[in-house]
Each structure stands twice: as C-alpha cells, then as structure tokens.
C-alpha cells in the first residue's frame, strides 16, 4: 500500500529540484530549441532533460510503475499505477524567457488520479492535492472562486498548436465569450491556469486539445479545491472546462452550440 502523504512530500521535492534546474538554465539562456508537430509546437533540451531526471527518480523509487510523459515513450510495466508527467508545461514561454511555466506530476491508480503536484518555478509556488484530502498552495488550503456570472469573471483560455489549420481553433468561442467577461487571460501554460482556478486567482478556464499530461495534476487540484470539471469531445477534439459549477455550465452553453449546431 502506497502512503500518499509520503509520496506527495517526495514528489514536491522532485518538482522543486527540477524547477530550480529550469530557472538556472533559463538564466544562462544556453539551450537548444526544436519544433515538433508545428512551428509553434516547441521542445527544448531542458524539457527533455527534465523528463529524463523525473523518469529516473520514479524508476528508482517505484520501478514497477508505468510512466506517461510528454516528451518520451509510454513505459508500460503492466502496473495499476501510472505516473503522468509534464516536465515543463509552457515550453513556448520558456523558450522566450517569459516567466510562466510549470512542472506537473500526477500519480494515477487505474483511472483515478490519487495525487497531483504542480510547481511554478518563477513564482516559487507549490500546489498539490491528495484525493479526498483537499488542495494546497504551500501549507495553506485553497478553494476555487465562487463567482457564478460571466460578467464578473476573469477567465483563462488557450489555443491549440494547429490553430492555423483546424476548425477547432478556439477563435469562435473566444469571439462570443470575450465581450461578456470582466476579463480574459492567456498564460501559455495549462498547468498554471489550472492552479490559478484552484486558488481563485482565475475564476474559470476552458481549452481544446489538451493532453492528459497537461491536466492530470491540475484537475485533481481543482476538484479537491471544490471545483467542477467538464470534459467532452467535439469533432474528435477534447474540450476541458473548469471552475465553479455555474461558470462551467455557462461556458458550456456558449461553446458547444458553436460546433454542435453547425
């Protein structure tokens, strides 16, 4: 039986070590950048190094566990436990020295996320949650915003890497939703946005085409902070909405008809 409190303490230590490494490398601005699926889909050698280190730590401590990471292959050890890691969420930001990026690590058993940790190196903010035990920023318990009206809400979103070629590029929802909001934010890091929702810095969030490593830790943190999460697919494109129950419902009502009724 895994002691999740002990695992969370260990993973927070790992995340901070990786975040410190990323800050150090960024300060020197001495790293290579490559493209993946599109010219806007970047990977740096720091992404690869960070994932390599995290994988090594997991393998040393939990050699039988599966590992799903953004930058490497899926390690399938036929375990009921799977680690889901995004070693550097916000690579485009990082490559441009824009100081919003995150280390995101989650542990699942079967299809249930048991623990999630997100570290924001430039802000030195550590977020984590254990299933059924609440969500925390540092040592302080956090809760989502209780706002229910779009007109008073500050909401975050993002755009997919194939926005130039895909119908599901989030521009249509943005054009409809933006005029009805108090404000909108686009950070470039889903992990940052999800932590911001969990800690009520942002009232709600929506985005298309996120991968599991983008949100595995963040969704648990939001749920443990009292938030609502809605996930569906529109034309084979995943959609994620998070926030208060009322705001999630209102965002659904704005977004889904755009695609479903056309």
Automatic annotation (TrEMBL):
A GO molecular-function annotation: inositol monophosphate 1-phosphatase activity
Q: Which Gene3D superfamilies match?
A: 3.40.190.80, Fructose-1,6-Bisphosphatase, subunit A, domain 1 (3.30.540.10)
**What cofactor(s) does the depicted protein rely on?**
Mg(2+)
Gene Ontology BP, a term: signal transduction
The protein's annotated catalytic reaction(s) are: a myo-inositol phosphate + H2O = myo-inositol + phosphate
rRNA-binding is among the record's keywords: no
Q: Per its UniProt record, what InterPro entries does this chain match?
A: IMPase (IPR033942), Inositol_monoP_metal-BS (IPR020583), Inositol_monophosphatase-like (IPR000760), Inositol_monophosphatase_CS (IPR020550), Inositol_monophosphatase_SuhB (IPR022337)
What is the protein name for this chain? Inositol-1-monophosphatase
